[in-house]
Amino acid sequence: MSENKKAGRPPKYRSVKAMQKKIDAYFESCKGTILTDEDGKPVIYKGNPVIIDEKPPTITGLALALGFNSRQSLLNYEGKEEFMDTITRAKAQVEQYTEERLFDKDGANGAKFSLANNFKGWKEKQQVDTTVSTKLEDLL
User: Checking CA distances to 60, which of 15, 30, 91, 114 falls within 20 to 30 Å?
Assistant: First the structure.
């Protein structure tokens, strides 16, 4: 191998623009589509249009949509300086969605789990007081 050639796999993305295009497509696909009737009018249920094929944005879903084999591969790619801001912003969009689910009784537990395991600063902490208060007289 010559000194000019680098060993290893070629980069998955050559430009931030190409990656951003795939990220935008992923988030657009998560929105789903409005169900329409035979006349092309939205089907309404309880005052809201019925949306089909809607799915929550996730870090793993984002990774797969970008062509990575795993969530960890996406996180590793975030270490590449030129892609760091783009991936960080996409992850923030997933985090925002997940955070909003904390206010939804059906999604709160899953949201807590995802936030604690996928994003910094979201760990649930328990404090245990281990101080012992004894008087000297009690010890003698």
Answer: 15
